[in-house]
Amino acid sequence: MFKKILIANRGEIALRVMRTCREMGIEVVAVFSEADRTAPHVLFADEAYHIGPAPSTHSYLNYPKILEVARASGAEAIHPGYGFLSENTDFASEVSKAGIVFIGPPASAIKIMGDKTMARQAMLKTQVPVVPGTEEPIADISRALEVANDIGFPVLIKAAGGGGGKGMRIVNAPDEFEDAVGKAQRESQSAFGDGRVYIEKYLEEPHHIEFQILADTHGNTIHLNERECSIQRRYQKVIEESPSPFIDDDLRTKMGKAAVETAESCKYVGAGTVEFLVDKYRNFYFLEMNTRLQVEHPVTEMVTGVDLVAEQIRIAAGQTLSHKQIDISTTGHAIECRIYAEDAAHDFAPSTGEIVMLQIPDGAGTRFDGAIRQGIEITPYYDPMLGKLICWAHDRESALNRSERALREFYIGGIETTIQFCRSVIKHNTFREGTYDTHFYTNFMDELHADLSATTEEVLLVAGGSLFHHQNQIKHGSHSSSSKKKTRSNWVNAQLGRNK
Amino acid sequence: MMKFEINANNRSIEANFTGESSELVIKTGENELRFEAIQVQPGVHSVLMNNRSFVVGVCPNEANRVNINGTPINLELLDAVHLHLRELGWDSLKEVKAGLISAQIPGLVTKIFHGAGDEVSEGDPLFLIEAMKMENEIKSPIAGTVKRIGVTEGQTVEKGTNIIEIE
């Protein structure tokens, strides 16, 4: 086993990996940017090295520097976390060339799965279903209609040149087809200067369901069941849970097999995630494979009892998997709420500043994976995720109640966070009933935001009384953390303002 | 006894406060409530109102916002002076000038679309500010003439920094 590992990351994931390392008796090396000298991962580590200025291109993405630190510190392996260098094929191969173990899949697997077209083509050679559609853009309309009939309506027309919903059309029946293709082509021509469009099967009420897999260097690949990740906004996950309230044992078995087949098809090694879309008829299709540890991995850990980081390290050290497929069983239910430094009331705009107050929930079944403390500055340089609250209980309803309880205890003062937004999702009937799909946020946006601003008369009085009390304290100078008075003007350069 | 109007989330309530600030009697309509607040850690107060327990956070840098049992609330607490001024039609207590646009988030100003003297319409893009890997376009809230520009492209700004003033 390794004696020392370098963690090429920051924030909650760096801390998450370091915790397991320490439990395994492995020394941990941190790297940090200028903005992160006192960040939690630096304080936690056995050794810490400065690698550059705040912008990540000059620090956490600067892999020659990170490799230099790895050599200098004598680290035998590098864990990349997620984001940053975790899916960078050049980094993975450079690490190996330097005689250091990359805790992740081989560069070849990252390469195949990192490219959507390559991944789709690789999957077409297997039994794993992919979303039916055209491989090439539409040229001939009558040929296109044949394809659409083969796929089966409804179909989705998608712009080849861009995204964001422009040039996208849902077509429900053959007689609407020609007209819709024309409109989509004109729209994408004007939006992207490229009128080519693709046809794809339109999935009704889709669910985003992913399977955790583990593969060792001895040819063993297993899956650790699913995570339901359909609560998203702007294609970013907000709440994940396991098991999914939508799929049954039969479908779980089929999808699990497909996930293992996907991993085997690219000779995968390490921990990975195979993402599927599942429509309302419970047809599932391969979406993509993430060749790293996922943000939402703790929900799988909570229900399976497997430490995924420990498994990653064991696999990288050449050991065989600790579990066979038959040994994997799940207990209870886990829900993860991602806490972002974002203002849900203003279109999730990022929020930065000092965390002035902090109260982290605890109690039975309550896990917080974060890297924050009171007094810390949330800078604009990195990802706005502050941490993840993961609640486990024996059944889904108890896990929902526990999540709501824990979110109520959670208090981060000084910046905007998504704590309250998560709470309104957890409380929502459709979420509680487990009948939601990826359209949840769009469908219920107004209700969720109305819930955010719901106030009772009692709360209003408490708020008024408290503010009055607070203002009096300041007036009488008895407030212990005296407010930082800004004396300077809000014009950074008064002279400049006048001249321009 | 002091009269207040409390406004938050499109609700409004009038109340009379009597007593020391840490121990108040709050009267609203027919109701009389005993309010007691004790600071348990800097900025965090335990409030008992008629023995109902609330944990209240008040951040020194967030003047009109409190957090009650995990729920943040932006509120307006208007005292007798404010209420009287409003009766006289002076509702201009808010210092914010409609045409003064400041940075709502700290970040890097990557693009300024106008110079002083330019005419802008409501909704015209004014500048781009980049924070946490995301670019945010700030639009003009009013139509008018650019009076002043306070930053240059490529400048890093803090929250609240004035960027552009429009008349």
Question: H/E series of chain B, N to C?
Answer: EEEEEEEEEHEEEEEEEE
Mean pLDDT over the full residue set of chain B? 85
Largest interface: A-B, 62 and 72 residues
Proportion of residues in β-strands of chain B: over 45%
Total number of beta strands of chain B: 17
For the biggest β-sheet of chain B, the strand order reads 8-7-6-5-4-3-2-1-9
On the 0 to 100 scale, the average pLDDT of chain A is: 91
Alpha-carbon Rg of chain A, integer = 25 Å
Which residues of chain B form runs of ≥5 with pLDDT under 50?
A: 92-96
Your description of this structure?
- The complex is a heterodimer of chains A (500) and B (167).
- Chain A is 36% helix and 23% strand.
- Chain A has 500 residues and is α+β, with helices and mostly antiparallel strands.
- Chain A folds into 3 domains: 4-103, Rossmann fold, CATH 3.40.50.20; 141-201, Dna Ligase, domain 1, CATH 3.30.1490; 207-452, D-amino Acid Aminotransferase, Chain A, domain 1 (2-Layer Sandwich), CATH 3.30.470.
- In chain A, the strands form 6 sheets. In chain A, strands 13-12-9-10-11-14-21-19 form an 8-stranded antiparallel β-sheet, with helices on both faces.
- In chain A, helix 4 packs antiparallel against helix 5 (107-114), helix 12 (396-409) packs antiparallel against helix 13 and helix 13 (419-427) crosses helix 15 (440-452).
- Chain A is globular and about 80 Å long.
- Chain B has 167 residues and is mostly beta strands.
- A 9-stranded antiparallel β-sheet of chain B has the order 8-7-6-5-4-3-2-1-9. In chain B, strands 10-17-15-12 form a 4-stranded antiparallel β-sheet, with no helix packed on it. A 4-stranded antiparallel β-sheet of chain B has the order 14-13-11-16, with no helix packed on it.
- Chain B starts with a strand and ends with a strand.
- The longest helix of chain B has 8 residues, at 80-87.
- At the A-B interface, strand 16, strand 17, helix 12, helix 13 and helix 16 of A face strand 1, strand 2, strand 3, strand 4 and strand 5 of B.
